[in-house]
Automatic annotation (TrEMBL):
It comes from the Eukaryota. Residues 322-333 have a biased composition (Basic residues). Residues 411-592 form the DUF4042 domain. Residues 308-399, 603-642 are annotated as: Disordered. Pfam families: DUF4042 (PF13251), HEAT_EZ (PF13513). Residues 357-378, 603-617 have a biased composition (Polar residues). It comes from Cyprinus carpio carpio. This is HEAT repeat-containing protein 6.
Amino acid sequence: FSLQQFRLTCIFMYHKMFVPLPKAQHELDGSAQAQDQISRCCNKLRSLRASDSATLKTELNSLFDQLISENYNSGNHDNIHPEVVCEMLMHASRLVPLSQEHLIIKLSQLIHQLLNQLQVIVDEHALDVLVSYCTRALRTCSSWTHPEVLLALSSLVYGNGSRCHRHLPELLGLSGILVNYGDPSQPDIELRRSAVHCLANLCLSVPGQPYLEEPYKGVCYGILLRTLQSPKPPDVEDIVFCTLLQSALKGTQYFLNGGKWKAVSTQDLGTLLALLKRFMFYGLPGISVEMPQVLYPAPLPQYETIPAAKPELSQDSASQQNKKRKSRGKGKKAGAEGKNDDDDHISGHLKTGGSGVDQSGWSLGSQSASVTSPSGVTPQLYPSWKKGSSDSEFSDPEGGMQTKLRLYQARVRQSALQCFLAVVKCVEKRILYGYWSSFVPDAPGIGGPPPLTLLTIALKDPSPKVRAGSLQVLSALLEGSRQFLSTAEDTSAPRQAFTPFSATLAASVRELHRCLLLALVAESSCQTLTQVLKCLAHLVSNVPYNRLRPGLLSPLWKQIRPYVRHRDVNVRVSSLTLFGALVSTQAPLPEIQLLLQQPGSTSALSTPGISTPQELSHNWRLPTRRDGEASSPGGGVEGDPEGPCWMLQLCVSLVTQPREEPYSDSDAGGSSGASLEPLPIRLEALQVLAHLVKGYFSLVQTSLLELGQLSTRCLKEQEPSVQLHGTKVLDLYVFVISLCQVKKQMVLAAPMISALQNEQHPTLQTSACDTLSSILPQAFSQLPNKTQVLCITILLGLTYSENALVKAAAVRALGVYILFPCLREDVMFVADTANAILTALDDRSPNVRAKAAWSLGNLTDTLIVNMQSVGLEFQEEFSDMLLLNMLRSATKASGDKDRVKSNAVRALGNLVHFLQPVHLGKPVFEQPLQEAMRALIDTVRGEATMKVRWNACYALGNAFRNHNLPLGSADWSKEAYSALSYVVTSCKNFKVRIKSAAALSVPSTRDRYGDAQQFAQVWQALAQALEHSEEMEDFLEYRYCASLRSQLCHALLHLLSVCQPNDLPALRSSLSDQSRPVLQGFLVHYLSNKGVTLVAGVDGAAGDEAGDHAVPEDGLRALNETLTRLKGQLEEAVLDSSEDLETVVNFLEDVLRNFEEVKESDSKVFSLPLSKLPQ
């Protein structure tokens, strides 16, 4: 054994004994050891049997201690199965009798620790066993054990409220355990806190599980609400009371997440909002406000009563105090905030840089709130929590408890804001906006205390999480508020007598812009800064800037430009989202157009973070500036104003250019390439570019080639999301070049074809199909024939794709192409498209069937256009068998869902209109024609949506235009007229009535109306509808009244023009009773050309219906011709029919005479001012 061998052996032993194992191996061994220990304890526990021996108590005590001492939060226990935990706890509950209270406490602690740290939700059997055990313990054991048992019970019922139905009477009944312990009159605060925690967990429901049922849900809410309303008992510590409030607020949040808000007597929204507003400011330094007990919905703000301010100190005493503060504040440091935003570091959220003002004071905060133009970075813009605090309690040796208290108070405020967010999500916005003034300011509050709103928290709260929470609530309020904010207006001159609601709302919008801009400048927490930018994006997307004085967007635009190069990737993404909102809202806005035309900032947009006030201390990160390169803190160096749009250049550079190295520390994981910007930034830049091209394409016309190159580059990338967003830009690019009629064929280059054929990414194929469908007809006709054939071939092939989204997009694109003038006369293309559409119409996907029905409607519109323009040549070349298949498929689709049915009936009307005598004479068409007409009749009579019924009435009128149709003699004719007559008198939607009246006036000859009885039914229905045309269930239908009356008058005059002598008795009966003057008045009004002017004057809403009826001049001509014809018949009439004929003639003469009188009086009114002119 040589010395060398001895040395080697020693080295080996040393490494084996002292060198640590690799990290993965160490974690693996630790996990195995933990598993072994748990398994040993579980096996030992299973081997025990219930008895009264002291040995069993000792062993249980030891086993519980071992299990409780484990740290289950570590990763060593991830492989413990929930079934093992449930079985072990159930067996332990059988071993511990209710007489052993010390063991019950340890078992309760074990239940709480295992379920919480391992995040186990127990199964139904274990839940039943363990909840029964806990309830029996609460009924039997001493009160000193109850807090621990309630803690275990809260872990058991977490997310299991609906599954505890067997125990709910005992827990939440009239004298239930949780009802008694959770009541505010309960003197033991620990019991009360634990019971409220149980109630909160009962209200929680995990996804896939039903919510807690009534009336127990209401019982929980009542206790939680009373807990929030009750004051703090004098002998309870502040921190303990904070935990109670936090549990109550969390429970209220879980309750609100359980469904839509129901306005019942036990749930008053104003009371809840008043409580939430109170706890939103709970413990906030400098706030001691008596909130109202109830908030009432009102357009004007409710003012909180703030206690009278302390008398001002004399000048000498104030100076002495300032000296003391300055002397105490020397040499003290405060932690920076940007590093860690947790609530545990509230003590570090103080920055030196102020003038020695107490942090709990609001003086600087109110000054900062009154700044109206935050154009630069000045100390006055910073809120009070950003100022230095020379006499902070945190620096005292006894400040630990105060720091902890402020942490718990911040958690209460955060819970209140989370609860408020749940309110916003579960309450209808129209109800919630009644409380707008209680949470959103409408004035800066200069010269007085600041208003207590969500923006007060965003500007003043020392906790970044609370500030972020208030901004989240504000964002939720602003989301979808476009209709509410649309009433805001301040462009007119201000009124002196009173302030209208529109002006108040406009002032609120301006204050929102001002305060959020202050928050943007002052915020240094990256997470909260992201929320500020998102909130601004929601605000910009919903504000009606065209009704407000310009100037709101320019300061915002100037401030957010530097954030595009912020060090945090989330802030950069949010700033781009805000830019997207700015260029997309109500585009094109003149103010945004001017801002886009301003010269770009090369230094501010390429130098990371130089202009953001939060990063003025980060100059060491800046790259060395070249000679001659100037920086501008405001974000502006003079450039060429006539060059390309700077935002377009910015977006293109973010997508294609390498990222800046100084700010790549947090971006490594998000980039598709090592040298490019992170993927979220590139995608957001593409979205901004799409909005820019869509809203301001006049500014990007000079960069069409650059846009095409960018789209091509995106399509060549491997990342599917970049390809998808590239196709969206390409879609708008195609639209722009179509408008400009530019011959750019880059869109159909190899990358586009590759995207269309990329079966691995169907979303990309879908977007590419949408891009092809966005080509305008004029631009498509200018493409070479090979390119046109390529587009059509690709789309026809994709209609047979296995992916429903791709198939739907391809079918829709064909539905667009079928309307192109250069394609619609091509019989082969029409036939190929029809076959593809009919195949898609049988697809199992409702979305595909809906798109196919829409395309089929367009195709049949093309058939009607070709029938009128091309004539018999096209009809003879079109296949009869294909036409028959289209008729059958459309009839079948008319029984589908409403999305499909609305266009299927449109197609049916066109197809029946298209049928020629050669088709109607074939027996093979007889049955499909009857089925098609009955399908239209059933749809008109049915309970479908109004859009479907409108289309069905339109389709029937379209079918009636076919002169070859056996209308009047066919079996279905009577049913068709009966259905239209029913709709014109009883449908609550006036647009459907208008379309049915238009259909009833289509037949051009008397024989097409059937026999005298059928004609009389149509006449009576139209007369009744006109007589009651001012009666409506919904006031929104009022805007269609004039159009309805005009159409009904036109239909009645048309019937009079074709009536025959055997129809006169029915006409006489309706013209002899009390309805005669009503009908006469409406007809005179119609002939006076007043009905049409009313139609055109209702916000353009009824303009679509105005074309359904002829102009009154045509009606007057028809009236004169009818009167002449009937007078001639009156001279030749026999005695039996002369009375009926005379009644109708007298009625028409009265109408004509009254019309002449109205016309003469109108001419006098118009000539009156002329007679008064000086000669």
